[in-house]
Sequence to fold (358 residues):
Amino acid sequence: MLDIRIERTQTPKEKPTDESKLGFGHIFTDHMFIMNYDTGEGWHDARIVPYGDLTLSPAAMCLHYGQEIFEGLKAYRTADGSIQLFRPDENYKRMNVSCDRMVIPQLNEEDCIQATKVLVEMEKDWVPHSEGTSLYIRPFIIATDPYVGVRPADHYLFMIILSPSGAYYSTGLNPVKIYVEKQYVRAVRGGTGFAKTAANYAISLKGQAEAHEQDYEQVLWLDGVEQKYVEEVGSMNIFFVIDGEVITPKLTGSVLPGITRKSALEICKKKGYKVSERRISIEEIAKAYDEGKLDEVFGTGTAAVISPVGHLKWGDKIMTINNNEIGPISQMLYDTMTGIQWGKLPDEFGWVCKVCEG
Ligand code: COI
Fold:
């Protein structure tokens, strides 16, 4: 058990009143969790303090070489007012995998879950009430040594911040437009694609900016070797329904092992769909489209939940999926996933982790 020191704010902020205008990731709650790591001492000094800016050396290593990792999960308010998390154990397991890749000292996963629950319970009044909203939880670790040489740091901060949020995409559950990236790559064999680390997101910005110029919301990344096989979108994993079969790219090391991805696969299997995790080329998708067999495309992610894809642009070819409408499997997954998360459906998978009663 972590011994968490708590310092409450003397100046609590106004909570948002119009939950339809929350957007994603702009607003932060009154408190944050912090813990330090120092070589020789390990992780220590767990505390919850008023939310505020950090004092960091301009030479802090995270600012120069990107030694950082992060996670994303959510707290949901159920109809009876209680607050619950969705598979936090999976997030902290993945966080330790990311730590290992980025040579950051790992944490005790139970301690991380405890810290999350204590912080969320303190901030329970910040968990929004409206349909489709949640409290987004962002744990992260940064290297803080003031040093501009390249080596793993000796000092780190593990922090958790909270943000009441609505839909990730401004389109909500309406289909998004995705641009298949042909020039840039996100991840390569032996790289960091499977880890949740800043570099994977920084590298995606150029492609995303160019996609935005063409009025596409997100980029679909192809593999970094042949630019042939589909990998992921960057803010979400991707699924295709071809001739009734639910297909998602297999985890080859350059794809993020999404928790919503894993949950969507488990739901589909339980409901009896034919499911495969395999390499799938963009040519195969275009061929299925031409043959009228590309039934649905959707993304999965903590922030994105289930996000139907209405248009896929690959070079000059524009594929309009399911008449730019949400398809039956995407809708079923959205309803099942959010039904469990918001406590409207029984949690037959044992995924929910209660924070506090209403
Ligand atoms: C999440 O889905 O939680 C993520 O971390 C994706 C992020 C780009 C918003």
Summary: The radius of gyration is 21 Å.
